[in-house]
TrEMBL record, chain A:
The keyword Oxidoreductase applies. It comes from Roseovarius lutimaris. Gene3D superfamilies: 3.30.465.10, CO dehydrogenase flavoprotein, C-terminal domain, Uridine Diphospho-n-acetylenolpyruvylglucosamine Reductase, domain 2. This is Carbon-monoxide dehydrogenase medium subunit. Keywords: FAD, Flavoprotein, Oxidoreductase. Pfam families: CO_deh_flav_C, FAD_binding_5.
TrEMBL record, chain B:
Residues 4-80 form the 2Fe-2S ferredoxin-type domain. PANTHER family: OXIDOREDUCTASE WITH IRON-SULFUR SUBUNIT. InterPro entries: 2Fe-2S-bd (IPR002888), 2Fe-2S-bd_dom_sf (IPR036884), 2Fe-2S_ferredoxin-like_sf (IPR036010), 2Fe-2S_ferredoxin-type (IPR001041), 2Fe2S_fd_BS (IPR006058), Beta-grasp_dom_sf (IPR012675), Diverse_Oxidoreductases (IPR051452). Keywords: 2Fe-2S, Iron, Iron-sulfur, Metal-binding, Oxidoreductase. GO terms for molecular function: 2 iron, 2 sulfur cluster binding; metal ion binding; oxidoreductase activity. It comes from the Bacteria. This is Carbon-monoxide dehydrogenase small subunit. It comes from Roseovarius lutimaris.
Amino acid sequence: MRYEAPQSVEAAVDLLAGAEGAFVLAGGTDLLVKLRSEMLEPDLVVDIKRIAGMKEITPEDGGWRIGAAVSGAEMGEHAGLVADWPGVVEAAGLIGSTQVQGRATLAGNLCNASPAADSVPAMVAANATVRIVGPQGTRDIAVIDVPESPGKTTLAPGEFIASVFLPAKPKQGGDAYLRFIPRTEMDIAVVGCGVSLVLDSAGKVTSARVSLGAVGPKVMLVEAAAEAILGRALDDSALEDLAAACSAAASPIEDKRGTVDFRRHVAGVLARRAAEIAATRAKGETA
Amino acid sequence: MSQIHVTTSINGDATEFLCEAEDTLLDVLRDRLGMTGSKEGCGTGDCGACSVTVDGRLVCSCLMLGAEAEGREVTTIEGMATGDRLHPLQEKFIEMAALQCGICTPGILVAAKSLLEKNPDPSEEEVRYWLAGNLCRCTGYDKIIRAVMDTAADLRRAS
Ligand SMILES: Cc1cc2nc3c(=O)[nH]c(=O)nc-3n(C[C@H](O)[C@H](O)[C@H](O)COP(=O)(O)OP(=O)(O)OC[C@H]3O[C@@H](n4cnc5c(N)ncnc54)[C@H](O)[C@@H]3O)c2cc1C
Ligand code: FES
Ligand code: FES
């Protein structure tokens, strides 16, 4: 195996495009585990952390551009980001321990392409995009279009994610992410749910995005769940309909951590709770 | 394949080493530099016995390549005591018997020190969450948490 730490995007693209079996190294919290267990035997590892800008969080068009090497811990320490997208920051903050937080990145969580990746439903709910660089130049795509199937992304050879963009937080908007795990820390989501919504002055939902993780081969945007609450105040009956839409959309597997029925039920419960938190935040209150 | 030459700082000392691209920072510390204080409990980021700080950030040295240490500032358990004088956390762990076999202890001390530098007055819940990535098979955690809380109180009184 060869290790390279290029200083420019161009040099990184050249390296990645020039070698079969080349892997990007961001925080390494997935990659190193796979290296150790010989699940992967890369010829080349390209460390992107020395490329200018990769460690920066910068304001852009009222939103935030987050470099691909920014860790979960760094996101949690960024007051502006926490104020605008608390759900995304909390989702990233759920990844692993303090030690893992010191290294794990959003783009790594996304490109590892686990159906249970915690930050991904939150980014999808927030309508986040990624900037992809590669031999063909630069393109921006929605986060939801990155995962293809478990462990696989839609990125072409030689491409990598340079940054994640969280759009301007809508006025009277709020977001939240919740997951269910059998323990209180350090576990993989059995179900994850992200909600981002906007309320009008009467407290009615004017737009919403609801996403589910870990209940299908990849993250899903549940449009029926958003439609269920559109134009309505988040009273019991609206929340009930939201939960029912999420339970119906979930198509989980059955394993020792949860039956299909249990996961479906939890998808609805989490959606309901996440929507309540997002609504509280949309009203400018803390939750 | 030729080895990688890395120049870094470990516990404040300028250090150079040669390593393979596959070597983790933990491999380098233990096998190339003879610093065996950091332990390998799992090698997969779960146990925290390999905890070190890199540029002030707490990380698992088993989940970082040695080559990544180029130009960074690494601190390990070996840098915790000043000469013969133990760090207050180390003294408290002995006094309160917050260890049995001791394999988790270096990682827990490094992690706890990093917490107290960031937050001198943590709640018990904050200590438990901060140390959630440090597993201990012996103590049941209670003595560890109390030793960290006690040290924090001592340090606050002293400052
Ligand atoms: C103890 C432990 C606990 C964990 N707990 C959780 C958890 O609770 N929830 C959760 O979701 N995950 C968890 N993880 C998994 C992991 O920490 C996350 O997926 C993390 O976000 C990965 O980010 P990274 O920067 O470390 O990725 P890396 O390991 O550097 O990379 C992961 C994959 O993505 C590719 N990649 C990385 N960056 C890019 C890029 N910019 N462009 C293209 N490809 C890229 C790499 O080549 C690799 O294939 C845990 C891991 C450990 C070790
Ligand atoms: S050896 Fe690194 S976390 Fe267990
Ligand atoms: S003292 Fe034995 S593992 Fe903690």
